[in-house]
Records
---
Amino acid sequence: MIDWFTVAAQIFNFLVLVALLKYFLYDRIISAMDERERKIKDRLEDADRKKQEAGREAEEYRQQKEKLEEQQKELFEKAKQEAEEKRKELVAEARNEVREKRRGWEKGLQKEKNEFLRQLGRMATEEVYAAARRTLKDLADADLEEKSVDAFLHVLEKSKKEVREELTRFASGKDRPLVVRSSFDITGTLAQKITRKIHQLFSKDIDVDYKTEPELLLGIEIKGPSRKIAWHADDYLERLQQESQKVFEEIIQEESGRQKSKKEEEDSK
Amino acid sequence: MELKYISPDQVVYWQWGPVSLNATIVFTWGVMALVVIGALLITRNLSSEVRMSRWQNLLEILVDGMRSQIRQISQQVPERYLPFVGSLFLYIFVCNLLTIVPFYTPPTASLSTTAALAICVFVAVPIYGIRDRGVGGYFKQYIRPTVFMLPFNIMGELSRTLALAVRLFGNIMSGMKIAAILLAIAPLLFPVLMHALGLLTGVIQAYIFAVLAMVYIASATQVQKKKQGQQQDNGEGKEESSNG
């Protein structure tokens, strides 16, 4: 059954086949497969590397983004703060302006008020003065005149010596009598009374002349070149006027003081 | 019954003394030409990219399958066994597969061919064994576990080679013969079934032949490896104990 020549030929054939397949098939296919494997591995490694790189870059970008966001936030905060400050400033400015304006207005008002009060005072005193004047005028009679003379004599007695001496010097001689001015006519006993008193207090050589001057209201006076001795109801009235003026001034000051304290209170608020 | 159904060796096309050009040799050349030219054509422009031709894919699956089989059986790097064992499988596989082609006689149906292949395996086993373990190392396995086992080992070696040859020959030859006989008795349908069965048998036989060849080779190389491993283990153990 076995043909040994065929066996030998087949062995040879098979060995040739093995050699041919090794060269043409296995080596080539395996090298191609290895090559592919290597390439895929390379590609995977490359992909891995790129992925890592991408991850790193992404991380970097994320950090940058975070930083930017933070910066943005900071800037926003700063802007907000600045705006708030600006707002406060503007509000304060506006408030100041309003305050200034109000102060000015209040000052004006106060001034007007003071002026009004002052005027009122003046008018009141004038009225009082006028009323008193009128009253005194109306009341002027003999009795009052006598009383006035008594008062003048009293003043004369109380007058200072050097004033009396000056007046004496001034009236020595007949050309220059000592003029007694009065608001009413001094005659008779009243005139004698005064003349006697002058002679007693000044000098017996002095001539005494009497002059009536209605604008003196109710009063008697002896006038020298620089000094005079006088009694006036006007004096009292003037004092009254001054006093009432003073009272009004006080009222005004009080009022302005109250205004000031009120303002300070508001400012502190 | 035609002559080729008895044995393709008997179909002689040309003869000169003992040198005869019979059907076995001619068809073997045909199969060889087919396989080699096919491989040549496919591997002419191989692609190492991810995209490749279907034929390349087919070959890669084939080669990779054979490699993994060899790796599984031998537990060694498959590349050194692949040309021999892979060619055995490919050759027998193509020989058997072509039985469906009319006027074709598989060379594996000739005892001369299967004997030639078995002899190849018979020779390859000691070659691989000696290359791995040296002459002494290889031949020592014949006197294991005792010297008395030497004749049995030799007989075993011879008988498994004989079995290798006869198994393949018997299967393919019987398939051929059954197909021929059935063709004579029941020309319709039945021969087709038997041919299909023959194809299955042929593929299985190709696989069996290659796997057995690999097992024989592996057994000749592996024993030594295992022994070396054991020795290493022992050596390490001794070192450890001496250290202790």
---
Amino acid sequence: MAQITFVTKNKEEKVLEGTSGSLMKLATQNGVKGIEGECGGVCSCATCHVHVPEEHQAKTGEASEIENDLLELSDNVQDNSRLCCQLQITEDLDGLVVHVAN
Amino acid sequence: MDNKKSTIEDPFKEKRESCGYHEMDDQNDPVTMILGHKDVRKAAHNWKTFQSGAEPGRIVVPSEVEIRDLRQIPFEVDPPEHTNYRDLVEPWFKRPLEEEYQLKLKNIINEVLTDALEKGSVELIHDFSLVLQSRALTVLLNSEYSEAERWISWGTHVFRSEDDPLDNSKANVLADYLDEKVEEAKKNPTEDFFSVLLNSEVNGKKLSDDEVKGVMMLTFAGGRDTVINAVTNSIAYFADHPESIEFLRKQPEHMNTAIEELVRYFSPLTHMGRVVTEDTSVCEHAIKNDSRISMCWASANRDEKVFDKPNEVVLDRKMNPHVAFGFGTHNCLGATHARAILRILLELIVEKVDSMEILDSKENIEDWGGIERKVGYNKINVKFNAL
């Protein structure tokens, strides 16, 4: 079980709990605003873009080249951008906070 | 690579790898097609240099400037105006995520499929995919189910007649229809998309009749051939690959990656153009201001720099950064509807179909300046065997 906090563009905080699957799925199943996951998690659409605060980056690790290439052309891209369909929920992510980018 | 009837080859490989672009003429308004995945996405992202808000019809290839004056919205508008239009229509085009919407689609697709199973064999393009697409469009537009009959009677090409891109008789059919429906909705407002748009505002101003028609024309035109090709090609693929039906039956958790992969492989829209707003270059090739480029989704989707085994259908492909629904600002507005149709179709095939067999077919081959691409079929008879 991991507790994950999504902070949306309008500063709303949603604290969710998950055991498996991707962060994107957790967010869409719980109606987190700004996370759409249109392509279902195959790294095609970039509608699950989040920013990961520095203190949490050790938990999420590095983006792959395919993910980075897509992020590069996304709105509101920053050094700490990730596509949350590429983040799999494990206990290691417990306490993670992400900010929705759009 | 297997060579079956449902195979869709990649004719762009040689050009993509040698120079990255391909020049073609189109009614004396040439187009430089961009072929590589990275270059295609960069061009789609760069709406300032590669604009959509040019003369109506010019970003479409073959160009439609000779057959229409109406601007398609939000498709032929650039930011910042584009954003307002897109924000207005986006919630309407996200309705396919709702359960009630999906239930309606399921009833429609189930009826078409059940009918095919009862008949035993059908010609897919006219008697399956066009019917399915038209009836599904009544759900997207929230219009009377009976309207579908009229759209079916138009045939598969709303704008283009098969041989002549300048034949405007087909374009007039749609334009006249939109005129009629807008007047009708003004007199008797309903809950359909015409009435909703007529009552909508952008920047505190009601949409004009032409703006309403512009959105409607995009909806009719953008989702017709594309959905018909996606549906037809899916069935052709499963007819040739019964093991894939079995795979999804045993492992339905791969349904999402399967849909994305089929859409990548089919790329129902080969490319989309833009008009260049300044002297620039693509792949070290000079492109002049006010000329045209296109982003070749079909070629980008087979780029071996990005996709392993690009010419194979890998139903559980995990990373699939395809651009079959376009990319960036103008990505496909109807993608949610299209994905819902394909998912429900596949689920019903898995549930009801044992096997299918392509009896005979006539391929729909496009010619882009000497490069020929199969995009689907003009005709294809398929035998359906129930589970």
